[in-house]
Amino acid sequence: MSQSFDEISAQLKRRHRKSARLKWLSMGALGLAGLFLVIFFADMLGKGLPAFQQAQIRVEVTYSEQSQQLPLAAVNEDVRELVSRGWLRTLPMMMRDNPQLLGTSRQEWVLADGQVDQYLKGHYTRLDDDEKEIVDALAEQGRAELQFNTTFFSRGDSKMPELAGIMSAAMGTVMTLLVTLAVSFPIGVMTAVYLEEFAPDNRLTQIIEININNLAAIPSILFGLLGLAIFINFFGVPRSSPLVGGLTLALMTLPVIIIATRTALRSVPDNIRHAAFGVGCSRWQVVRDHVLPLALPGIMTGSIIGLAQAMGETAPLIIVGMVAFIPDISASVTDAATVLPAQIFTWAGEPDRAFVEKTAGGILVLLTILIAMNATAVVLRKKFERRW
Amino acid sequence: MMDMKVANLGAASMSMPAIGEPVTRNEEANHELSIRVRDLNLWYGQTQALQNINIDVYQKNVTALIGPSGCGKSTFLRCLNRMNDLIRGVRIEGLVEMDGRDVNEVRMDEVALRRRVGMVFQKPNPFPKSIYENIAYAPRMHDLVSRKADQDELVERALQDAGLWNEVKDKLHQPGTSLSGGQQQRLCIARAIAVQPDVILMDEPTSALDPISTATIEDLMDKLKKQFTIITVTHNMQQAARVADYTAFFHLGELIEYNDTKTMFSNPHTKKAEDYITGRYG
């Protein structure tokens, strides 16, 4: 006897309840992931945004013979402890470069000491009560305030928090990534083209394929050891340089680019290849004129994501000496340099409270660049994706 | 006893064709040799897909290859421009001769061969480029044209020969994939004829098309055979009967019968061909 609708509905109720439960569970998982993200970003922004501001105080600066010998003499005794020592040390050099300053004195906004900065931001400070009073008085007169922190974006690392900046690390990252791109993109793409379009399907190419896939899963620190052994010890590439860092990261990025390129090539339909062979293209013409243009968006997306991954990498760079104190912005790929994640690592280990916000600020800069790179990948894919 | 004698007499009175020639000649057709195939065998790995194929294909005709699925007709077609080279594990023995040269010989460049033997595929596959570029690409690659004006003229001529010019002349720079299926297939035909080949291979060119587009392509084949040798694979026996001068029937990798199309469909010489044509299997 067949069942009535009511009977069937009664049985279905349990199934519907089950699917509703699963739906709520999966939505809950999504919500939780979103919540973590919000907490993470709120924390980073809360800690990092203050790093983009820096205390400045307006004081009388005297450019005299004496202050050329002893820079401390350039400012009044009462504010001497409140002005950045690092800034004071640059005074003799400035006076040498601008002799007309000698014998003058004027009111200037100058970089405040890191402790003043922390005090104005409401954090723990080592200033004593007298100094705090002076700062309060200056603030009331409008002679001590938080201004946009150009130092952070224009200078290299420093042991004095008010002078520490992210520029040397950013330049190091740019140069390292350029080396990585220049090495891994052509080699990776050509390897993938050979394996996908030219190579015979035999034991050897299968072994190569398996090994490339394994390579993508190797812990990155091993690539650092490889880079150390090959590039530094064997080829004598300068230690700590963007060149050696870039080459090491290129080793790590190669499998990512090869796999992405192969996937992109494989997604080009075979009838395009047949059409091209049918009109008498040679194999290379088929690849160059028809297959590669169609695969390019996928290749670019994969490469950018591979580079973004390389950019966030710290472990292999520790081994090749790129986690270092680099106060100067390196001028070439063979100079010692550091990179953004390594800079963050270094700052995170500083005992001074002021470096906490530097660390968070560095993370914000790194994340911004990473998000920008991934967004570029998405835009490129959307823009050049072709339907066929 | 008597019947057998008559049958024997009948067979004897018919002059036996030489190897590879059609059983009955189509007197209206051209009989200059285009492609001569002798003892062609082909294996996919261990499986033999073609067995001892012998056939003479004549110039400026339409030759149709028919037969049930998997009978080897498409495989045979791809032997003629060496598209089988692209498939791994294929082994070919025997002679495919064109213009006095074995197309499988070591010195034969498959690119040169495909320049003289063009191909149209089952599913229209224009390049994802403009209509103009679809046609102009191959002639430019083969250095047939250098000046822009020559190239424009060649594109126009190919599109006109393919009967597509009037429909696309105002949108030459739109993508080829924006056309309808039938138009795309004619674009592919135009692309094939743009390099002035001798032979055009068509692998079920209308199987993905609607009846009206199919009729257009059939008319086109009839027109094109004045300039080109056309070899077409088809599943559609009416189509073979309508367009072909000669028809070859394949079954399980063997060429069973090669005959004048009219004779093939009215009075097939072999039992297997008759059964297939009358719809007993297929």
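qc> Chain B touches chain A at residues 81, 83, 86, 88, 111-112, 114-115, 118-121, 123, 125-128, 137-138, 141-142, 177, 188, 191-192, 195 (CB under 8 Å).
qc> done
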